[in-house]
Amino acid sequence: MADVIHMARQYRRRINPWWSAKRWQEEHDRLGRYATLKMLSEKAWGYRLEYFRDNLPEEFPGYLIKTSKRLGIEGLRQRHCVASWHERIMNDMAAIAVVFVERTRWTVELIRTGSDERPLRIGQIKGRYNRNPDQATRKHIHEWLEIEDNGTSIPITGHPNARCWRENAQRIINRLEELGCAEEITVTFDGYGDSGAIEDVAIGDAFADQTLDILRIERSFSEGAWTQRETTVAMTLRDAIEHMAYDYISETGVNWYDNDGGFGELVLDMSSRTLALEVNARYTDSEIEFSRELEFDQLLE
User: Is the pTM value of this prediction over 0.85?
Assistant: First the structure.
């Protein structure tokens, strides 16, 4: 609270002593980002980029960020925390590139590896509001920068099973149909400040504790490559729906847990045979970032 009061006074922002703890945290994160980016946008630090230029192609659809002012502007433009990379850039351990893929701007972290064979690797790739790229975008960026994607740059956040949610959704639906369920099941979730969770799975007591086998994908990194194997695990319908929801939400690429975060709900309607997901991201206001309704028969297409 003391930090918020200090920054609010400095930047002439009104505060309310009756705010909830969550709102105080949101205001702290918001003002902290503003203060950092404002500082970077005003200072004229120049970055040493010779090493990175020597190990990148002469031309690619974008450019390297050369100064702290441009870094600050990038953070303000993209609404993410690129400012946190400033010290690593000043220490000559990293650089930031802006790369355009189909007119979409991506902020790319380049990291020195210390290896003559592979001098650079790609760390984080972030779009506007901390959005993560899909695999096709990631592939384009690696190819254009001529940096091999050997798996080290793939972020493993949240659930590792994002690719099997359709199979698990079908297993859940089949089990509910076996049990004669005709109700609407709603999953609600909320997140901010680098964390988030499913808050509730609204399912009738007659079905919640029934069990089924759910597909899981276990991933591990060894000898420069990712490997994975499929397993199954028995769990209750309530837990299975929660796991499936995490996986589906993860696949959307919407960052609903960092910074201002987001919220939404997934609705499995057994009577209309539809599965609807809506993810909202908070940017002071909120807007729908992803919306889709599928017929059950489409899940395995």
Answer: no
